[in-house]
Amino acid sequence: MNEISDFTKCKICKIIPDYKSVEKLHTDERLPKEVKELQIIGGYPINCQVRKCTLCGTYYNYYYDHDSQSGVGEGYTDESIERITPKKAQELIKHILKVFPDFPSDLLEPELVVKSE
Ligand SMILES: [Zn+2]
């Protein structure tokens, strides 16, 4: 039943909200610094990553989008973090391995092994 591990006891994960999006260019709001402590286990080269807490194993989807088009609007920089279930993380990892076959998979493939709980 408990798809997401008990992150409320984790000193990193209890700080990170279920979902948070910030606009960095025009606001001072930032994601919690704990987001940087998560291990990046794979993702699109720059802007979309599966991250994992090294303490409790909770998965996150990290997203970064920077609009640097000059002269069009004011531009923006969006950054977001979302807590995801292990099932969702596996779907993302499978997608990454399919779309980016050259992506280093030494961290990704072990994640696909079904863990017995
Ligand atoms: Zn954690």
What do you see in this structure?
- The chain is an alpha+beta fold and 117 residues long.
- The protein has one domain.
- It has one helix and five strands, in the order E-E-E-E-E-H.
- Strands 1-5-4-3-2 form a five-stranded antiparallel beta sheet, with helices on one face.
- It is flat and about 45 Å long.
- Bound molecules: zinc ion.
- Zinc ion binds next to loops.
Q: SSE layout and pairings?
A:
Layout: E1 19-23, E2 39-43, E3 48-52, E4 59-67, E5 76-84, H1 86-99
Antiparallel strand pairs: 1-5, 2-3, 3-4, 4-5
The structure holds zinc ion (ZN).
Listing every helix as H and every strand as E from the N terminus to the C terminus, the arrangement reads EEEEEH
Report the portion of residues in β strands: 25-35%
Radius of gyration: 15 Å
Sum up the overall morphology in one term: flat
Key features?
117 residues, alpha+beta, five-stranded antiparallel sheet, 28% strand, binds zinc ion
Report a brief summary of the structure.
The chain has about 120 residues and is α+β, with helices and mostly antiparallel strands.
